Amino acid sequence: MKLRWLLLALASACAPKTFGNGIGRPEIVPVERVERVPLEIVEVYAAAADPALHYARLELAAGAPTMTLTGVSVCDSAACVDLAGGMRGGDARQIDLSSLALPANAGELAVVHGETTATPVTYSYLAWGADPATLGSTRVARAVLDGATTPGDFVPVPFPMPAELAVARAGSNVGCVTAGLAAPVAPAACPAAERVLDLTEVYPAAAAGGDSWIELTNAGATALSLYGVRVCRLPQCAVLGRDVSLEPAARLSVHFGVAASDTAADRFYPSLAPLSRAAEVVVLAPGSAVATEAHFYQAFVRMGAAADDLAPVAAGAGLWPEPLAAVRTVRVDGESLSHDLSRDRTASAWYPTTPTPGEPNPDIRFGGDLWDSCSFPAPWREAPRSPLVIERLTQAPAGIELANRSEDGSTVSFVGLSLFVSGVTMALDGQGELAAGAVLFIDQVLFIDLVIGDNGEAALLQDDGAGGTRVVQYLRWGEGAASVATPAVLAGVWPLERCGLPVLTGAGVITLNAGLPGHSPPDYH
Predict the structure, then answer these.
(1) 393 with 400: CB under 8 angstroms?
(2) Is residue 178 predicted with pLDDT exceeding 70?
(3) CA dist 494 to 372, 464, 518, Å?
(4) Does the N terminus or the C terminus of the chain have fewer Cβ atoms within 10 A?
């Protein structure tokens, strides 16, 4: 009997086997694979939502002597199922794996003799969905040493794995088959699947060491295991664990650079660098350890002046318009970038907004009546730039500096204009005209009732010719009353929300940044 096993081992050592490692390419890399015992895993089914339906089929090579299964186990990365009885050459046996609850999209299975002994031996090994080294497998090294597999070999499967498909091995091929067939068949190419995992929100760190996160959403109609999914900001990636899953429409926040206890809605990776306002983030289906294969890309965003290392691949995958495209960078601490699940993959589909981790994002659509950010008025409501702006506000002495920032060098007339400051209005008709580039400083000499407190608002008002006025410039600071805020919002010169307002204390000064229209709080510093 020992001589026969030795002859079988020598014969198989000379027979090249192909262990497929590409979606749609069942025969790729020929590798030498030494089989100690011709007991093979020929099918693994783990795609059903009900773990009670999970199974593996084992097959003993035709012509092999009868083999006892005492001491043999079928094991995944976490637990084992012990076998009993025996098999004759050419026999196949279906093993109930309900106690293992295998993830469909990434996993490993091994047939092991003497699992609980000091020297277990791996007879057969099959990994699917993700390189087991990426998932921190403890079994793959033993499988390599025992000749049951070769480093880096696995079969990518669709993400998410369709419920009707199983992973199978037949002869020299590994791929996908329809689950539950009575006899082994040659595996077909694993089909591509529709992307259902979306990146819907990004929150850069507001300060060094602060919290930063991305939000993942299950846009599919069924529950989705995220085991093996990677969230990457090169050169680092977070690999999601076996216990991470999402129900339809559910959301998960993945935190970078923060240490805290994981929950169903939040996962923390303190070893990863926090996200900055200039970064590329890619979400990858389980796969190899590299981030440059387009068929693994699930979602992508490029913020600010980030490097475009991944943008060309994302563009090739249809997830980004072109490598140099970038979403607008948030300009206010405490804001996030939001995507509305419209499936629009352009950079303009992302908007700064108030963070909504775990909650639906604002339904931002062109032509709608929703302001998307406390720092950006909606672009379709953007008011024309006023040549006359509130350029500077001082507290001690109290004063407001109006500047003519005309881009064509034209003079501005004060006829029909008035200045509103914290409840008091002053007509400016008597001030004549203001040349381009010139300033008019209004203090208590011109405006005796002028008071600049810690909280307040100021507005330039223009007669509308119908007995009313419209707001052409607005500034609010502190936490004071906002009697002109609504007209300013309706005129498109101020955002609906009021987060990030400028602050005045003591002898404070607020100044309009160069090149900005003064239509939002961050325009001022």
Answers:
(1) yes
(2) yes
(3) 12, 19, 8
(4) N
